[in-house]
Prior knowledge:
The protein is of the alpha/beta class. It is 51% helix and 15% strand. α5 links the parallel β6 (193-196) and β7 (211-214). The chain is globular and about 65 Å long. 41% of the residues are buried.
Amino acid sequence: MLKQRKKFLFMGLLVATVLVLFACNNGTKQEVAKSAENGEANKDASEEKVVIKIADSFPTNHQTSVLGIQPWIERIEELGEGKIEVEYYPAEQLSKEASLLDAAKNKIADITYVGAQYMTDELPLTAIAGNPGIVQDAISGSKAFNKLVQEDLYELELKPNGVKPLWAVTTNPYQIINSTHPIETIDDFKGLKIRTSGGLQENLVQYWEASPVSTTAPEIYTAWERGTIDGALLSIISWSGYQLEELVKYSTTNAALSSFGIMYVVNEEVWNSWPEDVQEAVSQASEEAIEMLSTGYMDAEKELMQEYAELGVEFYDIPEEELKKWNDSLGPLNEEWAKNLDQRGLPASEILDKFIQYNNEFKE
């Protein structure tokens, strides 16, 4: 009887041991399977594409888009190595030009073009890119404006609006274009209706006894065709985007009446949500875009002038003596601009001095 009891006890212990080992082994398999599943999930998450929405107002045939924006987008995706997908909304598809800053602030788009000269209430200092007589060419002007934006204007005006600047450039200096008569003296401006992009350009046109008409660039053709304007202050590079070569008959070549600041910004919260490698890809592509677009402006303008001359546009230089009169009258306009903003508590005189200094530095 004792032997039988020992035998039953031994068999019971053996069964219990087997059951314990089976349970442990099964649990280990489940943990391994669960770990594998988590690993696959983490792998899928790490490989998930970051979709970036970019919106602007430029038609895709505009020189700015052809020379700069589209290559920049391609470069972002290239540097992203399959991790970045860009959704591009050109030609005001996502927002009107004057509302693109709000589109970035409100995350309607992640990145948007901002033309500060259309937004002088929100970005009065950043609109300095349009002040006359400062920008001498697209390359030096772009380097100067980008430096000003990154080092000074970001903290003053862009960060309070919830956006971070990615890159900024300027066009070549604006010329006076019209379909009425050559404008070779300041007196030739009298009585003309001239399109401006707002800001200090309006003051300039009024100062020379013409009537300023403020419109965004996509509205120029219709305003001109209807007789609302006789001409415009505009960079030659911008004509083709709005079919203005069909309307322009006369254009100066050596005036420095203004320029235009082109800037792309990203919503700050969106930027901070991106992985570091995505930020690096966007930053590198943006840095490259400055050189690519400003150099492209310089080269393309020469080619376009030849092309438009063959279409019948008369290009002409302002005589040196007369050009000095034009330039001498621009300084007081800039000083008055700075004074008015200084009185509002904004450091406009400091920003004006820096922008002039940066342009001179990069011009040398």
